[in-house]
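Researcher: Go.
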Amino acid sequence: MFRFIKHERQNTRRGRSRQAGRVGFGLEILEGRQLMSASLGGFHGGGPGPEGFGPGGQGHQLSPIEFSQLPAAVQTGLDMLATNDGLADPAATAAVTLGNVNGIETYSVTINGTGTVARLTVDASGAAVTAPTVATSTWDALSGTSTGSNATAASEITSIATALGLTAPTSTTSVKVTTASDGTTTYSVTLDSSSTTGRYGSRGTTITVDSSGNPVGNQVLPFSVIPTTIQTALNANVPSGATALTTDSTQSVRVQTVDGVALYSTTFNTSGTQTTVTVNAAGTLTSLPSTSSTTYGDLSSTVQAELQTLATAGGSTETLASDQAVTVLNEANGTTIYSLSVDVAVGSSTMTRSLTVSVDANGNPTVTPVGAAGGDDRGFGGGGGGGIACGGMDDDSSSSSSSSSSASSTTASSASTAAVSAAKKASTKAVTSKAKAKAVVKTVKAKVKKAIKKLASKVKTTTA
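Model: Structure:
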């Protein structure tokens, strides 16, 4: 099962610091104090996406959605998982949590049985997705010749350790072996500095490489330890007037795993100009995640139709206008996500809140990636975070297995309805708190303004 990593506290601090500067009287707006923000169907975590784009910047993201609103391939994939596990197919109204982590758009549904809770997860193609498996090995096993060994990975780790001035691994040094859902494997070793002074001091430093010996994760390494294919690609794209790096250069190379893609960046300096070149492990020029703007009218009919469907499902009564602003997120893996915000009513009140709906270029409903660009730890489980019924569970079992008897469609539907109802109540409460906070600030501003006016009058009388 996926472990959902909640980021509510981090988001709260960021939101609070941004809001504080908006009040001219040194008062802190109370809106940022809520630790969890409600969305239709569940509470969600998730930090701002690349370049500030994401749930923190545009409003609450729509997640979960109903099973019936999923693409056919996703519905088929979840039905097949349920059948294989002896579970009832998800109900049409079952809540499905949307995720987008490590470059994979995911769809998760929870089915409750008597004494059992099964969570099924697939990607946009309907293929089963499981959380990475983590095992522990030793350096002796990795650098040896028996099962579990990888001489290429061991050699790269040794080279990096030497270049960074770390102690060499011993036969008993622990190696963390992580295998992703797609079968790719990475090896991580934490080593101490060979000196108590210098950049790394006495703290441990973790080195991570993949099975091909390419550094991955989030590291800053000297050019000299970067694999030849990547070195060659970086030098092949040296800007005019700059000098190519020698193979033993100590110039820094930033290693980042973003949207499931390992990226390698270094900066070349020419007269008055700095140019950063970024390539992937294959040596192909690759752009970091970026955002741009467009309008609803300029989107494909497939994307338009799904955005309108999601907006309506989220509670919007608007017919999206052709000039509606749309934010375009280009992920490092080539995926493009289109997002727009609509106002939706809160309960029976006249108050509204902003809701963000997102769709990829193929028309699949999704959410923006969790975490900031440049990091390799965006969590696992997606921007929808832990929904009341569909998430928020730390469960270590497989995403496609259950413990015993299957749940009925009625049970799943009931849980989904309860999730949506609970979330709506939480949303109403959150918005009510916001309204009260705004009222307090407004009252204080009025009193301060009145006091200043009165003081000015007294000063004028005294002067006269």
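Model: Residues 1-57, 371-424 have pLDDT under 50 and may be disordered.
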